[in-house]
Recover the amino acids of this structure.
């Protein structure tokens, strides 16, 4: 497929690398311009482009930028054809993004994103740590393969997103509508906890909408505390323990 990725941070660049390796034609853009990521693009076999070029002439757009920056994309996303599948990988952290009242009042993050950019989105790859995405993909037949939730309101777009999640080495679980996507937001049992498919199904069911933001903030405070140097395995274990 022809895929445009806006955002070349840990998640965006890893997705570009993995999807290109699967044979997809990938364009990658960031906020600084193509020259700043040309070396990376050459290394992983993708095209370094502007943001405008990344969302033009593609079948799928993957957005992997800081949550608060989504309104800045409205001018270019408003020109994206309705049939183009748009996938949101972001998460809301008030300490980084500033307070966003609609989200704080309970609006699911990806619905807020859809409104800000003027295009419906599918929520995927948001509930995985960058290191997990980079290093822990497994073949489809593996019994310990990690599963990732995919939420959305369009059957075609959701199917495409699920197929791409599978391409990156993870089992895709249809996690309901975009209205249900709060179940995979930060602070929930499904978020960055490296679960198998049966475990993820249960985790989504056990999500508590009122507790999730409190868990999110408590976890971030723990991870950012002075002297905190948790390993990847400890971060996953802490996520599991504090959201159970």
């Amino acid at each position: 497929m022809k895929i445009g990725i806006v955002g070349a941070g840990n998640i965006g660049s890893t997705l570009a690398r993995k999807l290109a390796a699967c044979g997809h034609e990938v364009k990658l853009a960031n906020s600084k311009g193509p020259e700043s990521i040309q070396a990376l693009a050459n290394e992983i076999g993708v095209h370094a482009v502007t943001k405008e070029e990344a969302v033009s002439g593609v079948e799928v757009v993957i957005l992997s930028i800081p949550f608060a920056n989504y309104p800045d994309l409205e001018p270019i996303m408003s020109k994206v054809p309705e049939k183009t599948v748009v996938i949101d990988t972001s998460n809301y952290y008030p300490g980084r993004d500033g307070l966003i009242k609609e989200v704080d009042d309970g609006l699911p993050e990806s619905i807020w994103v859809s409104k800000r950019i003027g295009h419906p989105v599918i929520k995927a790859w948001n509930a995985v740590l960058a290191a997990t995405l980079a290093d822990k993909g497994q073949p489809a037949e593996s019994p310990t393969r990690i599963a990732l939730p995919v939420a959305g309101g369009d059957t075609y777009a959701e199917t495409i997103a699920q197929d791409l999640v599978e391409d990156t080495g993870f089992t895709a679980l249809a996690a309901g509508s975009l209205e249900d996507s709060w179940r995979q937001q930060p602070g929930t049992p499904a978020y960055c906890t490296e679960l198998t498919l049966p475990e993820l199904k249960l985790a989504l069911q056990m999500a508590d909408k009122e507790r999730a933001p409190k868990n999110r903030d408590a976890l971030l405070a723990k991870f950012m505390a002075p002297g905190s140097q948790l390993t990847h395995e400890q971060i996953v274990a802490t996520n599991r323990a504090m959201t159970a």
In short: The chain has a mean pLDDT of 97.
